[in-house]
Design brief:
Elements: H1 5-25, H2 27-48, E1 54-59, H3 63-75, E2 78-82, H4 86-94, E3 100-103, H5 108-113, E4 121-124, H6 128-144, H7 146-158, H8 162-175, H9 190-196, H10 202-219, H11 221-229, H12 232-237, H13 243-273, H14 280-304, H15 308-325, H16 337-343, H17 347-360, H18 369-395
Parallel strand pairs: 1-2, 1-3
Antiparallel strand pairs: 3-4
Helix pairs in contact: 1-13, 2-10, 2-13, 3-6, 7-8, 10-13, 10-14, 10-15, 10-17, 11-14, 11-15, 13-14, 14-17, 14-18, 17-18
């Protein structure tokens, strides 16, 4: 290493370290950097992730109710939870904690044994998902009451006592030949299969990473403006350190902030939520390039904004719009074709496209080479512009 290179590297690292410490000491960042990203990952995972089934509450006691719960569990697509009373069930459904509920009143078992009519309550919100859930519940109830209904029908025809025919119907049902249906799926929905293979929190984690890395970098450009306004940058430029070294240090500080945000989200979601980030090499290169893009964008904004308030406001607005257009709030596959083309005008669009290939389709570096190349080009252009404009701003 050249004698001049060592001190230059040390200066760059020292400036970068100071910028990172400044970000961590800002109290407002504690929420936006550490808490809010994880809250959104959890929210998206609870709303859209996982394959555990729709949560359904059941109110009722007794052996007959237990049998009905077992049949509901066997239907698939539902996750049954016992609830103490009907009022609590209605409250849970109205707040969205449960997809629907079943209220089994007293006397259900006696009504089945006597082949008497009985009403079971169904609680749900007025949406299409509730209609599908009601079909599942009705199928389980019909199967459970099949013997009782058959006994009632025979009793009406023959005049025999219905209660004595229920046990006979149960015995006969065990002897009657059943019909087995074999289903073969042709074609299929590839996108649905991809989402079905994701973990509960996989869908939201990568989108929130790109959103908050960019948001933190742009909002943090206010610190760069303060460095200029307070004369810190001018004093650094007056030291023996060459101007390119000072600029590299300031750029390194923006990159350190972006990398810290990204690594925090990756580590916590991997350890705490078991998120699968796909191939480590491909994900690592993608995240690094996106962090460079975000850092360069933050440095560019910090060099052209007039004051820190303007930089913070513009940074938040630009970051949220870019994230929404680029698929960080909703998968790009759900966008109309025209919007998908617009998404590619943002770095988020390329990053989310690459992450979908890596996580959902087990892609590697070669599979996302185009996306990585585009992000690298964006990083080079933004870094060059930011360096020129920041140098002019400091000199001015």
């Amino acid at each position: 290493m050249s004698p001049a290179v060592g001190p230059a590297v040390g200066t760059v690292l020292a400036i970068s370290r100071v910028e990172l410490i400044r970000m961590l000491r800002e109290r407002s960042n504690l929420f936006f950097v550490f808490v809010l990203p994880l809250l959104l990952v959890v929210f998206i995972g609870l709303q859209f992730g996982g394959t555990a089934g729709t949560p359904v509450g059941v109110v009722g006691d007794g052996a007959a109710t237990d049998e009905l719960v077992e049949l509901l569990d066997e239907q698939g697509g539902v996750n049954v939870t016992r609830v103490d009373d009907a009022d609590e069930l209605e409250d849970l459904v109205s707040r969205g904690n449960l997809g629907g509920g079943v209220v089994v009143g007293e006397g259900y078992g006696a009504a089945l044994a006597a082949a008497e009519p009985f009403t079971i309550g169904f609680v749900a919100r007025p949406d299409s998902a509730s209609m599908s859930l009601r079909t599942v519940v009705e199928a389980a109830v019909a199967e459970h009451a099949a013997a009782s209904q058959a006994a009632r029908h025979v009793a009406d025809v023959t005049g025999l006592e219905a209660s004595t025919l229920v046990d006979l119907a149960d015995d006969v049902r065990g002897e009657v030949a059943t019909v087995t249906v074999t289903a073969a799926e042709v074609g299929g929905d590839a996108l649905a299969e991809e989402f079905a293979g994701l973990g509960q929190f996989d869908l939201g984690a990568s989108g929130q990473l790109f959103l908050f890395v960019f948001l933190t970098s742009l909002a943090g450009s206010a610190a760069l403006i303060q460095t200029r306004q307070y004369g810190v940058a001018a004093r650094m430029m007056s030291t023996p350190a060459p101007t390119p070294v000072v600029l590299a240090g300031l750029a390194g500080g923006r990159l350190a902030v972006a990398l810290f945000q990204a690594l925090y989200i990756i580590v916590v979601t991997t350890v705490g939520f078991d998120v699968d980030w796909g191939d480590p090499l491909a994900t690592g290169v993608l995240v690094l390039l996106f962090c460079v893009v975000a850092a360069a964008a933050g440095m560019l904004l910090g060099s052209v904004a007039r004051n820190d308030a303007q930089a913070s406001g513009a940074g938040v607005g630009i970051a949220l719009v870019a994230a929404a257009l680029g698929g960080s709030m909703m998968p790009l596959e759900f966008f109309p074709e025209g919007m998908r083309q617009i998404a590619l005008l943002t770095p988020h669009g390329w990053a989310n496209t690459a992450m979908a290939e890596i996580v959902r389709r087990d892609g590697g570096v070669a599979d996302v080479a185009v996306e990585l190349g585009v992000l690298a080009a964006i990083a080079v252009v933004l870094t060059a512009l930011a360096t020129v404009t920041l140098r002019r701003a400091i000199v001015r």
